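Researcher: Please translate sequence to structure tokens.
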Amino acid sequence: MRQIVLDTETTGLSAAQGDRIIEIGGVELLNRKLTGNNLHIYINPERDSHEDALKVHGITTEFLRDKPKLVAYLQGAELIIHNAPFDLSFLNKEMSLLGLPPITQVAHSVIDTLVMAKEMFPGKRNGLDALCSRLEVDNSNRTLHGALLDAELLADVYINMTRGQNALVMDEEDAVVVMQSAEEEIDLSSFELPVIRANEHELQSHETVLAELDKAVNGQSFFRKIPA
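Model: Translation complete:
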């Protein structure tokens, strides 16, 4: 399965009110392993960022002036997004402006890691920084929000939340070895297992326990009925 861990930065908080995407970062996973085929683009939104949004990402209108409108490499991939409804609302807005179908019709499916985190860590803070701290993902370089950096961090967080790529991914050669090992029959007929019998003290302790069980059930306990 091809997966894209995706993050966006925007001019503000509402696609419905005209805010636009200004940066997209995508990190590709193939069979849950990082491929290095990452996407990082800046987009000219043809409008200024809100002051509060500018403080978050630090991407100025002047910097974006000569950037392209939109590039996508999401076709057929499973998207992994933190707080997916937010990013999807902006992505779908950009798609509609280009006369293209919604992202959900382009991508294979969408995983919302915020929903996953709330299920795994109910009642706790589940922002990206909080998850990095909880899962020991190094985010020391995250002084400002950046789409590619956040996508890379989210990829690490996702892999940790799903118990690590090495724990769940097996190379084909390793899989063949495991299958071959499972098919081999081991002859145990030559092994003689020693029988270690209880000593007198152990037998007395056992009898004491059985007597207490008999007393508890007002009769003979189940263990008395088991053949020696």
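Researcher: Any highlights?
Model: The mean pLDDT is 77.
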